[in-house]
Amino acid sequence: MNLRSFLLGVLMIGSLTTVGYIVFAKGKHSPQSQQGFTLAITNNAYPINGAAFVSMTSVRYQKADGSWKKISTLPDGRTSVAYGQPGRGVFEVDEKDRKLIYVGPTSGTMPNEEQLRADPKFAGEETILGYRTLHLHFDEQGGQYTDSYFCPDLQGYPLRTVTVSSNGSRTVWEATKITPGEPSFETMPNYEVDESRFKAIHNQP
Fold first, then answer.
1. Domain with 109 in it: what CATH number?
2. Domain that holds residue 33
3. What's the mean pLDDT in 114-136?
4. Band (159; pLDDT cuts 50, 70, 90)
5. Cα–Cα distance measured from residue 92 to residue 145, given in angstroms and rounded to the nearest whole number
6. Residue 13 pLDDT exceeds 80
């Protein structure tokens, strides 16, 4: 498998991981964990043949009300901007055509700590960047598995997600810096919403 093919696989796995998080996040949230924060994030890829490399870096600005902005940068310098608004959805910004590309619904709120600990997938605690996280292990089809580390004090958001494929290659999505406090960012642009990609993926008319 060449580097380009592997990178495409990494990006696809990252998308599936996000979908898994959206599906998983449907519980009650503990009020004390509703605080804003900013995360610097790195996506590292570890192919079985070849050197490890950074596939993407991101900065996520998360407000206490659940709204967020995320700026992602690929190794070639290209950037993408996405927004999430509770009750409205997740959107990628297409500045060229001045559109908001609808990605899907927002995740809602994470299960609280008691619910996470009671989950059969709960595998223990780990401290990441000084924050306590709850480790859940997800076995998937074909021998693939994912380990995610959710932080109760940061809206239940995961600070690390490791996906290992059946052939042994893995991707590691992890926070490299955490800045607590309400972030400030400009509101989502008032562009036309385009749902065509979402409908095509989900076979909707």
1. 2.50.20.10
2. 3-201
3. 96
4. very high
5. 28
6. no
DSSP output for the chain: --HHHHHHHHHHHHHHHHHHHHHH--S---GGG---EEEEEEEEEE-SSS--EEEEEEEEEE-TTS-EEEEEE-TTS-EEEEEEETTTEEEEEETTTTEEEEEE--------HHHHHHSTTEEEEEEETTEEEEEEEEE-GGG-EEEEEE-GGGTT-EEEEEEE-TTS-EEEEEEEEEEES----PPPP-PEEE-HHHHHHTT--
* pTM for this prediction: 0.81
For the chain, the domain total comes to: 1
Q: Which residue has the higher pLDDT, 109 or 53?
A: 53
Residue indicated by tokens 């500045």: 95
100 CB neighbour count, 10 Å cutoff: 22
**CA separation for the pair 72, 79 (Å, rounded):** 5
What CA–CA distance (Å, rounded) separates 4 from 37? 33
Q: What is the pLDDT of residue 110?
A: 73
CA distances from 33 to 21, 37, 109, 175 (A): 18, 11, 11, 18
Q: How far apart are CA 203 and CA 197, in angstroms?
A: 10
Of 184, 128, 180, 168, residue with least CA distance to 45: 168
